């Protein structure tokens, strides 16, 4: 069974230009209403968006788009690990206890979220450095409001945020012109997928991470779709 919205399906249908056309990326940005704060943070200007015959999305624009999401992820885990204790992750009824029936993986749950947080911080630092090296201006972190009240809601939201990251890289990567940057983006993409797998395991109480999503190909998300989700958590830029 395949998902009709995957890039591979679009290729087979001869309709892949929706995700690979750089102008589509720009015009999608121009249509934003709800994602205005995020759009301004990405540094993608509205003037360029209004004149997409002459302006083109650059690799720096796409890297800033990725950096916007990485800032969000890094701050998300930093806040959560300040807010929740090891006990919240591992005690009776916790995601760690519900997922792992042996002690070692259960009692490493908090530490594994620390590793995920550190990956996100490394993504922020590396993307920032690459954008500067290319002569661009890296976007700054915003202020965020993440809607969870307990550890289970946090795990649910983590799965959503990681899935958004995975699909965002899949949607944006085909528009990157520099092959070295594409390789770098793909090296982040697979790490985000690993985060998503670990967190889904906990969200679903130990069921395989592909439970309920059995297709051999994943959908990609356009910039519009990503921003509509991510902007819910951004309260200021
Ligand atoms: Fe990341
Ligand atoms: Fe991640």
UniProtKB/TrEMBL annotation:
SUPFAM superfamilies: Ferritin-like. InterPro entries: Ferritin-like, Ferritin-like_SF, Pigment-catalase-like, TAT_signal. PROSITE patterns: TAT. PANTHER family: DESICCATION-LIKE PROTEIN (PTHR31694), OS05G0151100 PROTEIN (PTHR31694:SF26). This is Ferritin-like domain-containing protein. It comes from Halomarina rubra.
């Amino acid at each position: 069974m395949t998902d009709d919205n995957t890039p591979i399906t679009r290729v087979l249908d001869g309709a892949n230009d929706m995700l690979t056309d750089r102008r589509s990326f720009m015009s999608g940005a121009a249509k934003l209403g709800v994602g205005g704060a995020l759009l301004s943070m990405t540094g993608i200007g509205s003037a360029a968006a209004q004149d997409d015959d002459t302006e083109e999305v650059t690799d720096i624009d796409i890297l800033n788009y990725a950096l916007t999401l990485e800032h969000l992820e890094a701050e998300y885990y930093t806040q959560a690990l300040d807010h929740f204790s090891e006990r919240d992750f591992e005690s009776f009824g916790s995601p760690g206890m519900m997922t792992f029936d042996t002690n070692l993986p259960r009692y490493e749950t908090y530490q594994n979220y620390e590793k995920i947080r550190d990956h996100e911080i490394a993504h922020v630092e590396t993307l920032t450095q690459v954008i500067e090296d290319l002569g661009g201006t890296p976007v700054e972190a915003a202020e965020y409001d993440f809607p969870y009240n307990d550890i289970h809601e946090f795990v649910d939201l983590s799965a959503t945020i990681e899935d958004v990251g995975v699909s965002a890289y899949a949607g944006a990567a085909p528009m990157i012109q520099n092959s070295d940057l594409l390789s770098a983006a793909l090296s982040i993409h697979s790490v985000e997928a690993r985060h998503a797998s670990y967190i889904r395991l906990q969200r679903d109480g130990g069921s395989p991470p592909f439970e309920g999503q059995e297709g051999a190909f994943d959908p990609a998300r356009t910039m519009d779709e990503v921003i509509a989700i991510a902007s819910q958590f951004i309260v200021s830029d």
